[in-house]
Amino acid sequence: MSAEQRVVVVVGAGPGVSGSLARRCAANGWAVGLVGNDESALEDLVSTLVPARVERRVADPVTGGGAVADLGRRLGRIDLLHVNPSAYREADPLHLDVEGLLDDVRLGVGALLVAVQAAHPYLHPGSRVTVTGSMAADEPSAAAASLGVQKAGVRNLVRSLDATLAPEGVRAVSVTVRGALAREGTFSHDAVAEAIWQAAHQEAADWRPEVSYPA
Fold first, then answer.
1. pTM, entire model
2. Which of 62, 131, 132, 176 sits 20 to 30 Å CA-CA off 211?
3. CA 82 from centre of chain
4. Distances in whole angstroms, Cα of residue 45 to Cα of each of 21, 32, 109, 132
5. How far apart (Å, rounded) are the C-alpha atoms in residues 12 and 19?
6. Predicted confidence (pLDDT) per residue in 122-147, tens digit
7. Helices (H), the chain
8. What's the CA gap between 212 and 214, in Å, rounded?
9. What is the pLDDT of residue 1?
């Protein structure tokens, strides 16, 4: 790998937005590191990234800090860390129990904390952390109450991370997707991935830790 080759590490990698972002980076000549808990899905994604250099690790995103750190060591650096996981649980506030809520927040918010802490030694001035956000943070669905809590929490954590990392020249941003993901059109996986790519490439002087899509 060239000393100048950039590296993306995607946590919660799969066939959706995270896969599209991995392909977007690979198309620009980046090396790709993938962390996910579904080996078959990772294999399918890797097959779409040829001829990019790809390293993958099968791991739970919440307990997968070691996998992220290993990818940082193997690839030498992390220029973009993208954290994608969230949990969808059909339960309104009268039927959602505390254990279920905490399990979901552990994935939807905790995975970001774990990933950034593990990636930190491999981040450098100019590195970026991105997160797939959702309008559920502002307009939660009562039928899936934990999702709104996750998305509000992860957006809040992104702001804290951005403030903490900014003195090191590292910035963090959540992209609030204001619509339902679809196969085609404005909310296709590729379109949302492009929005995340653009958010990661904001000018540092005008940095915003939250970007809405569509604007």
1. 0.96
2. 62
3. 3
4. 11, 11, 24, 18
5. 9
6. 999 999 999 999 999 999 999 999 99
7. 17-27, 39-46, 65-75, 98-108, 110-119, 145-165, 189-200
8. 6
9. 42
